[in-house]
C-alpha cells in the first residue's frame, strides 16, 4: 500500500484523499493545514490522517498532494523543500488548473519527482464530489517518473488520466474556462436580451435551455462546423445588422462582434465572399 499526504485539505484535497483511502490502495498519513478547526473537519471527512500544522512535522511518504490555491503553490513548494522532509524519489504534485509542474522546481532539485494533476470536475461539495467523481478526466503533466506513478493513483480514485503536451497547461485551462465560465456568461447575456424583448421571466430559462442543450449536444457529437446554424452561416447580413441595432450596451455589442467574427471563421468556405466581406465590416 502506498502512502499519501495532503497539504491544503480544502474541497478538492479532501475529496481526493477520501477517494484514495476508500480505494484501499493508499494510506493517508498526514493532513496539513494552518487552522485547527478546518483541519479537524477535513480529517473527519477523509476518515484518516494525522492532523499536522507545520511542514517540519510531516512524515516521509510516497505521494504529496499540494491542494493549495494556485497563487500559493510556488510558496508552498519552497517551504516544503526548505523543511527537508520529502525523501528523494517521492512524488510531489499540485492540483492547479493553470500552473505547471515547474512550480515545484525547488522540490525537484532535492530529488523529488514533480507533476501537476488537474481533474476536470467541480468540487463545490466534497460529499457529492466523492459520489460523482467516477469517470472524471484528469490532466497530467510533469516529469515522466511522476506521471507514471500518478496514472495508477488517478485510476484508483475512479478517474481517467491523460497527458498534456509540454507547455500546454495554460491552453488546457483556457479551454475549460471558455467551455464552463464563458458559457455561463453567454447565458447571462442571452437572458438579458430576453428581458429586453419582453419574454416573461419564467419562460427565459426553458426558452434558452432547450436550444442551448440541443446546440451543445450537436456541437459535441457532430463537431462545431457541422453543428453551426444561424444568420451568419446563411450570410444574412440584414439580420446581423438588426441584432447590432438593439445592443445598446457597449460591452455586450463588443462581445457579440467578437463572437460573430469567430462564427464567420467557423463558417469558412460555406459563406459567399461578398457576404463574408459585408459581415466582417459589420463585426469590426
From TrEMBL:
UniProt domain DUF2520: residue ranges: 137-263
Pfam families recorded: DUF2520, Rossmann-like
Residue ranges of every copy of the Putative oxidoreductase/dehydrogenase Rossmann-like domain listed in the record: 5-119
Origin: domain of life: Bacteria
InterPro entries named in the record: 6-PGluconate_DH-like_C_sf (IPR008927), DUF2520 (IPR018931), NAD(P)-bd_dom_sf (IPR036291), OxRdtase/DH_put_Rossmann_dom (IPR019665), TM1727-like_C_sf (IPR037108)
Protein name (database record): DUF2520 domain-containing protein
Amino acid at each position: 500500500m502506498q502512502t499519501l499526504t495532503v497539504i491544503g485539505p480544502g474541497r478538492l484535497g479532501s475529496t481526493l484523499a477520501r477517494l484514495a483511502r476508500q480505494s484501499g490502495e493508499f494510506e493517508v498519513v498526514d493532513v496539513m493545514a494552518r487552522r485547527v478547526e478546518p483541519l479537524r473537519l477535513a480529517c473527519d471527512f477523509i476518515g484518516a490522517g494525522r492532523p499536522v500544522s507545520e511542514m517540519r512535522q510531516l512524515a516521509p511518504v510516497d505521494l504529496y498532494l499540494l491542494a493549495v490555491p494556485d497563487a500559493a503553490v510556488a510558496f508552498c513548494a519552497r517551504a516544503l523543500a526548505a523543511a527537508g522532509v520529502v525523501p528523494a524519489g517521492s512524488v510531489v504534485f499540485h492540483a492547479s488548473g493553470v500552473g505547471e509542474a515547474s512550480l515545484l522546481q525547488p522540490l525537484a532539485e532535492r530529488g523529488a519527482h514533480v507533476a501537476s494533476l488537474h481533474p476536470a470536475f467541480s468540487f463545490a461539495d466534497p460529499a457529492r464530489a466523492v459520489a460523482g467523481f467516477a469517470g472524471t478526466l484528469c490532466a497530467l503533466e510533469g516529469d515522466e517518473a511522476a506521471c507514471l506513478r500518478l496514472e495508477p493513483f488517478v485510476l484508483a480514485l475512479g478517474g481517467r488520466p491523460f497527458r498534456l503536451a509540454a507547455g500546454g497547461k495554460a491552453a488546457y485551462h483556457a479551454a475549460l474556462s471558455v467551455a464552463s465560465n464563458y458559457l455561463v456568461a453567454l447565458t447571462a447575456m442571452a437572458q438579458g436580451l430576453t428581458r429586453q424583448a419582453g419574454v416573461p421571466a419564467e419562460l427565459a430559462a426553458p426558452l434558452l435551455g432547450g436550444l442551448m442543450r440541443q446546440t451543445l449536444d450537436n456541437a459535441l457529437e457532430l463537431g462545431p462546423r457541422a453543428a453551426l446554424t444561424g444568420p451568419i452561416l446563411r450570410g444574412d447580413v440584414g439580420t446581423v445588422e438588426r441584432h447590432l441595432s438593439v445592443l445598446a450596451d457597449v460591452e455586450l455589442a463588443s462581445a457579440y462582434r467578437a463572437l460573430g467574427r469567430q462564427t464567420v471563421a467557423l463558417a469558412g468556405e460555406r459563406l459567399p465572399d461578398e457576404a463574408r466581406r459585408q459581415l466582417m465590416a459589420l463585426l469590426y
